[in-house]
Design a protein that fits this description.
By secondary structure, the chain is mainly beta. The chain is 3% helix and 46% strand. It is globular and about 60 Å long. Keywords: Signal.
Length: 337
């Protein structure tokens, strides 16, 4: 299998533009992953779905039938907004991780630690950061099999240091639900295949378990798992149903290899955040900038019931063409809705 190409970006996207061309082969399936932008605390995955190109599941470009060539141009327009042109059509996403002027990031071309159905076949070519050529051409075919990398990368762009692990998207789960932990959430350095490190030799040991859920493999709680189980979506976070909005779990990483070592992993602890989406929660009113004030136009409300004994006033309100009934209670000088 043709190995991925990892290209360090020697300047921030806040200062210069990143440009390249993706040639999608006719054999490529839907939902393939040609490249990923890597930073120290977030990854941006570009997925070529059936009708759209998605960035972290957000559509940025609509594909037509037969489209196979895509020109990309990426540059930050503020310190928190990344502008992406695909075939000269712009879109904007929030991405402070890539737009801070002091952050240096990487472009991973042709990731192979993905579901086999997402494996990209085709070419990525003419990769430039500003006026600097990072990659002339990288290609992978359906029948490549085991072979050496087919990437023509200038030697001056080779990386001297290897970051063993990248944290990507937060884990997102519905309240009382469960979700698979995927490579999108945690990604091992792409060169590990070149060092003949098997995914099963990359071990995660939980040092601080999630507080509002469990990590499960085959339905059983685990405190240790492998990268192989992440790649094949066998590791799950299961929420306990509590009224919580966020969680996390911490782990240490061990990479078994005689070819390369990472001494810093003996003391380093990583944390994966978990975002819990509320389900069937009752609606809540929160104070606005004016504090405990309800503003309604005179012609948008009328009193239905007023009670001096309970200090309660019941209103009907016409909001956006629909009727909303609510009550306002004055209780010991406090306004309750």
């Amino acid at each position: 299998m043709v190995a991925p190409a990892l290209l360090p970006l020697s300047a921030s996207l806040a200062l210069v533009a990143l440009q390249f061309v993706v040639d999608l082969s006719s054999e490529s399936r839907h939902d393939v992953l040609p490249f990923v932008l890597l930073s120290g605390n977030r990854n941006l995955s570009f997925v070529f779905a059936y009708r759209h190109i998605l960035v972290d599941q957000i559509p940025i470009f609509t594909r037509d039938d037969g489209d196979s060539l895509f020109r990309f141009h990426l540059k930050c327009v503020t310190d928190a907004a990344l502008q992406i042109y695909v075939n000269d059509l712009p879109s904007l996403i929030s991405s402070p991780s890539f737009c801070a002027s002091h952050h240096l990031n990487e472009l991973l071309v042709g990731p192979d630690d993905v579901d086999p159905n997402q494996l990209f076949t085709g070419c990525v070519r003419d990769v430039r950061l500003g006026s600097k050529v990072l990659l002339q051409r990288w290609c992978r075919g359906v029948d490549d099999g085991d072979s050496s990398p087919q990437a023509d990368v200038p030697l001056s762009e080779s990386s001297t240091g290897i970051q063993p692990l990248y944290l990507g998207e937060p884990v997102v789960v519905e309240e009382d639900g469960r979700v698979a932990i995927q490579w999108r959430n945690v990604y091992i350095f792409p060169e590990h295949n070149r060092f003949r490190i098997a995914n099963s030799d990359i071990i995660f040991r939980v040092v601080d378990a999630p507080q509002y859920g469990n990590l499960l493999v085959n339905g059983s709680e685990v405190r240790e798992f492998t990268y192989d189980q992440i790649i094949f979506k066998r590791l799950f976070y299961a929420h306990d149903g509590s009224e919580t909005h966020e969680d996390s779990f911490d782990f240490q990483l061990e990479i078994k290899s005689s070819a390369i070592s990472f001494p810093e992993l003996k003391t380093k602890v990583y944390s994966i955040p978990v975002t819990i989406a509320s389900k069937n929660d009752a609606p809540q009113l929160k104070y606005g900038t004016l504090g405990r004030v309800i503003q309604m136009a005179n012609n948008a409300k009328w009193v239905v019931l007023r009670s001096r004994r309970t200090s309660m006033i019941v209103y009907h309100c016409l909001c956006a063409g629909s009727r909303l009934k609510f009550k306002v209670v004055l209780n010991h000088s406090r306004l309750l809705v």
